[in-house]
Input
Amino acid sequence: MTLSTVRGEPAAVLAEAAARARAAESRERLRVRGGIALLGAALLLFWEYGLGFLVEPRYVSSPSEVAVRLAELVADGRLWGHIGVTLGEAGAGYLIGIAVGLAAALLLVAVPVLDEIAGPFLAAFYSIPKIALAPMFIMWFGLGLLPKVLLAALMVFLIVLANTMAGVRGIDPGLIEVSRVLGARGPTLVRTIVLPGAAPAVVASIRLTFSRAMVGAILGEFIAATQGLGFLIVRSSRQFETATVFAGIAVVAALVMLVNAAIRAVEARALPWSAGRTRG
Output
């Protein structure tokens, strides 16, 4: 047996093990996707044929009626206007909330005494039901886009702030002390230690808070609006157009899923090691 043969055997074993692992991972993905498909089909079938025995049928509609109504809204063009308005409000609030949340978190990190002072007030504000603020925002800022954008920004801001602070507090204090001993101070410490350490929590919160931005925008539209998916849903519910209500809800869910998938794809390319979890 030659030396090259001996060296080649471990490589072959490793290659075989990697192939088995990839095959097992592929089978697991297929099982998960199959399970998702089966569960979704079961829920739709129950909604179509079984839910009417538990709830008044005209109040729950059915998947077939919702699909027909959704096709009608798409065909007459009204749906696109509502989608554009809600996405504009949620998108603007999302970006504002991220920017302000990150800036506030970095400020609190840089000035610990400020964190101690502001902490109780932030905790109290976080506990306030945001739906209670929607009418106040409408009264303060009018009936236009601004109150919806601010509501969306508020929903995003609180979660980005909380998770950034949690990510920073999760950094090993010994690492920070060693960095300070080596001369890292202020912005240098934040740039080289704090931000990389908190990156998983920050990125996860950025990815998952778009749904909160949509909630904030739609809450504002529920209170006072003439366009948007929230307006479509609440107007249809008042007129007992159940199929239209569920069609609007389905569109909101689909938009959030699409945007989250796009953000996740960007995250996977930019930060492939990130696997942070978020709270909120």
